[in-house]
Amino acid sequence: MTGLRRLGATAANAAGLLLAVVVLNFLLIQAAPGDPAQVIAGEMGGASPEIMAEIRTRYGLDRSLPEQLATYVGKVARGDLGYSFFFNEPVSRLILGRLPATALLVLSSLGLAVMAGAGLGILGARRPNGLVSHAVSLVAIAGNAAPVFWTGLMLLVVFASLWPVLPVAGMEDVATPRHGLAYGLDVARHLVLPALTLGIVYVAQYSRLMRASMIDALNADYVRTARAKGLPERIVVGKHALRNALIPLVTMVGLQFGQLFAGAILVETVFAWPGLGRLTFDSILRRDYPTLLGILFCSALLVIAANLVTDLLYRLIDPRIRAGRPA
Amino acid sequence: MSALVAAEAAVQPQPVRSEAAPSMPRPAANPGLAALRLFLRNPSGLLGSVILIGLLFAALAGPHLYGVDPFEIVGAPFQPPGGDPVLGTDYLGQDILAALLQGGRATLLVGFSAALITVVIGVTFGALAGFFGGRVDAALMKVTEFFQVLPTLLFAMVLVTLFGQRIAITTIAIGIVSWPPTARLTRAEFLRLRGLDFVKAARAAGAGPLYLIGRVILPNAAPPIVVSATLAIGTAVLFEGALSFLGLGDPNVMSWGLMIGQNRAYALEAWWTVLLPGAAIFLAVLGVSLVGDAVNDAVNPRLRKRS
Question: So what's the ipTM on this one?
Fold first, then answer.
């Protein structure tokens, strides 16, 4: 298959998945106990009878199911994710407003997790039966078992009362001006604990994965060849083995992007980080279904985008995939 | 009928993972027993088993032995551990030890039941896809891919929010969002096994698709599925905790997650009300992961060499 045709197929697949998510949202509204108009208005949205009547006409709730579905899909295609009667704002604008804070948190944690995880994994793989290797495995298992909201709460307790050197809530101090270097530093200080909390789980998972795939790579014939021809160890490990060992890690990162986002919901709730996770928590609390379903749709969109990026990254790391040959 | 008997005969002499047998120095007479021996020799597997058995015992027998109702108000709120009651009280003045013992039942029950749902859905999808291949495979894998696009925890939150905060719904929601990895794993095993000689022999003897899937291939595909089921228990326990933490737990059923969710607003004044149930979740997931890893090492001889 040529590159362009492959790209087209991938894009068509992504569009199909996205449409399926919209249909799922529609079915969830229909299947939820109670009147769909009530679901759209949100239980505690304080919708008046006039608003309810308006929702019925806007979403065509008096027509047949297929017609309703078509109306719903058409709305989403135009970027209309509904209206939050609790926040008194269109859902799409609410989500776009909260997205930057979440993106900052998720990408910082991901960066931390990939770098620390890969580093620890390589360290552990150098001597598979050494002390360092066992320590890395132990940290990996423990870090993976700790619930992320619990780690966050414990860090919060420590840094709020025992060792108050870092802010434990929000994203900025009220007193700091909202521009320039001072503002950047202020946000960075607020970011440390949330990013650390979210990152720890993935440091654990990635170090474990990296250790295993690095051990495999270091046992491979091409590494023996590289050593036999006298290449320095730094090049053997850092270039020959690392490039191959990174492929499973990239796969994992791509596959887990959605989970990382879900983890952000918990972490943002703990640290009052003003992002999408906090919005999710509020919309659950208020039974604000349009917002909640809008977030589900947007996160699926992000995951699909992340999968596309992963696909592109593969090609950069592994020329064999680029050429269309099996890896 | 005779065809089935013949198929059974064709299946019987096949040891689990027959293709690995020639490379091993002495093929064990009973691969299950050999795996059990390997499992018991693994210190982390033993540690995990001890943790899990301890937690199960505490959850099953604990409430009877301790005999305090976890919802009963036994004293002033926020009493620190070390006095009476021994682990202190929570924000309402409920006994924390009683809540931990009783809460373990719900949390572990959700963990096991949700893992069971995960395995049933995942194995059904994976087995059908891997066995039939072609269009069936393409269609089922499309559904799997769709479920993998939805962030698991968020999807579970939406389901519980829409359909009600009851422990049964929590369990079903966790099962519904968690099955895709098991489906992919099962499919891969079925794809690998379906072309092997013992399956061909059973097919030639006249075995039907259901018999081939359930009695011929599935037993041989079981080891990695068992490992993934074990790990699914840990994930489900974490999910129950996360949902309850967000206020989506069943308020009428005491669980470890509910304890954290209800006390978290007071974490700064009374850290023990959050530390203890979180530590219980941590131990449960740790125990499950250690056991899962040890089972994996025991049934997968290829991994033994490198770790």
Answer: 0.82
